[in-house]
Amino acid sequence: MPDVLYTLTLQVRDAPGVLVRIAHVFARRSCNVSSVQVKPHAGGIWSDMTIEARNVMRITQIVQQLEKIIDVKSVYVHNNERKS
To answer: Which stretch of DSSP H or E encloses residue 55?
Structure first.
């Protein structure tokens, strides 16, 4: 299997426990998250979260599960980047 890096950008509510619920989606699918970066919106209740994960078997299923989380407003998957 080629080494594929997936980058997801989520708009999430800036509230306690949101990161845990998102991480649990990846853990249930046995996916290893490479990095997480969160940038809060100025004066708002939303934050942008960027997640990188490698070799995810069912990215569409993960996206669907993330979209079901109440505190997740949107999910965007960037183009896959292949590493040699």
So the answer is: none
